[in-house]
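Morning. Coffee machine broken again, so started the prediction first thing and wrote up yesterday's gels while waiting. Chain of 358 residues, entered below exactly as on the submission form.
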Amino acid sequence: MVPIDKVKDIITKHDALEKDLSTGNIDSKLFAKKSKEYSALGSVVKIAREYINFENEKKDLVNIAQDKTNDLEIIELAQKDLNELIQKKEKHENDLKVFLLPKDEDDTKNAIVEIRAGTGGQEASLFCADLYKMYEKVCSKKKWKLEIINISKSEAGGFKEVIFSVNGHDIYSYLKYESGVHRVQRIPKTETQGRVHTSAATVAVLPEVEEVDIEIKESDLRIDVFRAGGPGGQSVNTTDSAVRITHLPSGVVVSQQDEKSQHKNKAKALKILRSRVYEAKKREKDQERSSNRRSQIGSGDRSERIRTYNFPQGRVTDHRINLTLHKLDEFLTGEIHDEMNQELRLKEQNLKLENLNS
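Came back before lunch.
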C-alpha cells in the first residue's frame, strides 16, 4: 500500500504550485524551479487523484454487483468494471511508489569522469585507456558531448590518468553507476608464458556543479602557478601557465596544465575542484544517513570493486548485481552498455522500494 497522506501531498503540492505560477509574481529563477516541479507532478497528479477516489468507486461497484434486484447483465458489467478497477489500482500503486522513491538531486546534472590507473603497472595504464575508449564510444552512441579536461599518458601508450566532462541529458543519472574499482584479467602482450595478469583502474564520476550549487570562498583557496612540464621534465612552455588550486578547509588539491593559457587552466581546475568538494560534502551527508546507503548502488564509492573484465573468457561481471555478460567485446564498444546500466537502475529501484515499504 502507498501511504495515503503521501498521495494527498502530491495533489496539495501540485495545486499550490499551479496557484503560485498563475499569479506571475515570481522572479525568473524561482519561476523556472517551480515550473520544473509542477511539470514533474503533472505526470502523476491524475494518477494520485484516481487513487484517492478508488475506495469510493470500488464501494459503488460492489454495491451494484451484490444487489440481486439488478439485471444479470448489469451485475456482470459491474463485476467486470470492478476487476478492471482493481488492476488499475495496482498499476497506479506501482507508479506512485516509483514516483515517491527518494530522488538523487544530481541526476539531471552533467558529469566529470576521472579514470586513474591502479595496481598493475603498465598493464593498468593500458586498461585505463581502454576504459576511456569505452566511455568515448558510449557517449558517441548517445550523442553526448565529451571533452577532455586533463590527460597524463604513460610510456606504454596508455593513460596514468584522464579526466573528462560529459554534457547532455541526465548524464549523471547514467554514469554514476561507473564509480568504483574496475578490474581486468588478461594476458599482457609482454607476457611470454601466457599467464593471466590482474590489473585495476579507478573510476570516479562526479556531478558537474555550478557556483549556485556550492559556495567556495576565494579566501578558502590557495592558488599556485608554475611552469608546465612535459614527459621527462621537458618544458612545455616558458610561461607560468600551470595552475594548482588548494581548497584549504577540505584539503582538496587540483592541478591543471593542459592549456597554454593560465586563465583557461584556472577555469578547468576550478571546475574539477568545485565538483570534488561538492562530492565530499555529499558523501558526508550520505554517511550521516547511513541507513539509506544500502539503497544506493550508484554511491560513488571509489574503493569498492564493482566490475571485472575477463578477456580470456570474454566476459564482464558486475559484482553489485551478480550479472555476467559473455559479450565483452560488445560491452567495450558501447554496444550493450545499456543492458548493464538498466539492470543496475532496476536493482537500485527495487532496493529503494523495499526501504519505502519497510
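Residues 134 and 332 are 5 Å apart (CA to CA). Going to sketch it on the whiteboard this afternoon.
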